[in-house]
Design goal:
This protein is α/β, with parallel strands linked by helices. It has a single domain (3-225), classed as NAD(P)-binding Rossmann-like Domain (Rossmann fold, 3-Layer(aba) Sandwich), CATH 3.40.50.720. It is built from 7 helices and 8 strands; from the N terminus they run E-H-E-H-E-H-E-H-E-H-H-E-H-E-E. The chain has helices at residues 12-23, 35-45, 57-71, 91-116, 134-137, 150-169, 197-208, and strands at residues 3-6, 27-32, 48-51, 76-79, 123-127, 174-178, 218-221, 224-225. The chain has an 8-stranded mixed sheet with strand order 3-2-1-4-5-6-7-8, sandwiched between helices. Strand 2 (27-32), helix 2 and strand 3 form a beta-alpha-beta unit. Helix 3 (57-71) runs parallel beside helix 4 (91-116) and helix 4 packs parallel to helix 6. 47% of the residues are buried.
Length: 228
Amino acid sequence: MTVTLITGANKGIGFETAKQLLAQGHDVYLGARDPERGEKAAADLGARFVQLDVTDDASVSNALATIGAAEGRLDVLVHNAGILAGEALDGPTALRAFDTNAVGIVRVTEAALPWLRKSANPTVVTVSSSAGSFWAVNNPDRPEYHLPLALYSASKTAATMLTVQYAKAHPGVKFNAVEPGTTATDMTAAFGIGRSPEESAKTIVRLATLAADGPTGTFQDENGTLPW
């Protein structure tokens, strides 16, 4: 059985990704900061809960140690936890945005790599955004062109670059970033836009279930590789 960890998975796209991977036979660990919400979401899905706050080193270490002790490996890691950070453009908000959306990827990946290396088909998927793509934000025909979220966009640029650099540094592990599409979640509620999390999760699931000879170091959406 494929052992999978999804961060920030108690709601939204992460929750739906967990649901779809469970349907494909994965043994899913649902990572969430809040134990009560995480336990409930895991129980609703039939997944396993692990307390995981991507901004807390001890929480990350404990979560991966728990999975490693129970399973002896990790096959799939989905970096889904993220924040919009659109309330202000100042130092504290910038630190929080990057700590969650970029530094959190480093924390979790570094803790997960020893267990990923024990997998026959180790796979990492970063839920990034084309809001961090120079091509998209400078294209008037793209919705990102009109998105006034400097810190979110910049932190997602960092998330995609981290994915590419990890792919180069660890050729035995597949690392890919994904633009899931504009999705109606708690994060986007103020904008009143987006399709269902069920639809957006499909691209994440596709990249999370790649064969051993699948691509690595890419940034993709549902239609394939994106300019960046």
